[in-house]
Specification:
It is globular, with a radius of gyration of 21 Å. Helix 1 crosses helix 2 and helix 3 crosses helix 5. Strand 8 and strand 9 form a beta hairpin. Helix content is about 20%, strand content about 35%.
Length: about 300
């Protein structure tokens, strides 16, 4: 007998909840904010909107389904199942936070604060959940397959991300490594930089885009940012330092399907983390190698 679908509601602690937890009471939190020129009512109202959205989405879950909730901080310890429908209730970034732990489950993004969030990944309103949840299981439902990026180390550590993967030193100081390109004649260069970013088309709306714009749209390299569903990645070396021992000729490029970017560590410690979550990082040391490429899995996001 097959299991009934399970709705997994992914959410995060609100700013109001964090303030009250830190200061003990609503009054103390209000005093803290007022001493810094802010009104707690603005924060409390966003909290109420989030709670209303969670309640509305919960009420929309079909009665025959199972359901559970997981907070963002617990995602790395939560076991997703094949029959899950993942409902992200919050901001765009929360979809990226959840994506790295999924394996093809359909995702529905619910925007709790329209107008404040860009709505790139949380595309729907709470009131639409009643129709969206059953539709997520239908084979004919329009689902966008968003390209993801992965890093695999020579000790089998693996990291998956929806937006981008950063490889460099903790704290973004200078790190040394050898950068190699599998699909560019095997070019290799010793470098010292503040890190390397490898990003997807989804990430092209965030950190990757800011680096691309700083370089004038990377016109010198002829780089065009990919679309979210495109099987192509772009990469940038941040602040490469020229010296007799390190070069700056390989500082930007793209990885097409099957292409790999390889880093061989020449520092005591190098970390790789995805989508800005440095607390969930892969750690590497002298001589280790890590290969970055398009991930075999994609985020299945309901359009």
């Amino acid at each position: 007998m097959s299991l009934a679908p399970r709705a997994v509601l992914v959410h995060r602690t609100t700013e109001y909840e964090e303030l009250v937890a830190r200061h003990g009471t609503h009054g103390q939190a209000a005093f803290f904010l007022s001493s810094r020129g802010r009104d707690i009512e603005e924060v409390a109202e966003r909290h109420r909107r989030t709670r209303r959205a969670l309640a509305e989405v919960t009420a929309a879950i079909p009665l025959t389904w199972r359901q559970t909730r997981v907070e963002r901080a617990d995602l790395d310890r939560f076991l997703f199942a094949a029959e899950d429908v993942v409902v992200v209730v919050g901001q765009d970034g929360l979809v990226a936070n959840a994506a790295k732990y999924l394996a093809g489950q359909p995702v529905v993004g619910i925007d709790t604060d329209p107008g404040r969030n860009p709505g790139v990944l949380v595309r729907h309103r709470p009131g639409e959940a009643r129709l969206l949840l059953p539709a997520a299981l239908a084979a004919a439902t329009g689902v966008d397959e968003l390209t993801m990026v992965e890093a695999v180390a020579d000790d089998t550590q693996r990291l998956l991300a929806l937006n981008e993967i950063y490889l460099g030193a903790a704290g973004h100081q200078t790190v040394r490594y050898r950068l190699g390109l599998d699909d560019d004649g095997g070019a290799v260069e010793a470098q010292a930089s503040s890190g390397v970013l490898v990003g997807t088309g989804t990430g092209a709306t965030g950190w990757i885009r800011s680096v691309w714009q700083e370089r004038g749209g990377a016109a010198d390299a002829g780089l065009r940012l990919p679309r979210p569903t495109e099987d192509r990645l772009v990469w940038f070396v941040r602040e490469a330092w020229p010296s007799p021992a390190t070069g700056t000729s390989l500082v930007a490029g793209e990885l097409t399907a099957g292409g790999h970017l390889t880093l061989t560590v020449e520092s005591e410690r190098l970390i790789a983390f995805g989508d800005g979550i440095e607390s969930d990082a892969v750690e590497l040391t002298w001589g280790q190698r890590v290969r970055v490429s398009r991930a075999a899995t994609a985020l299945r996001l309901l359009g």
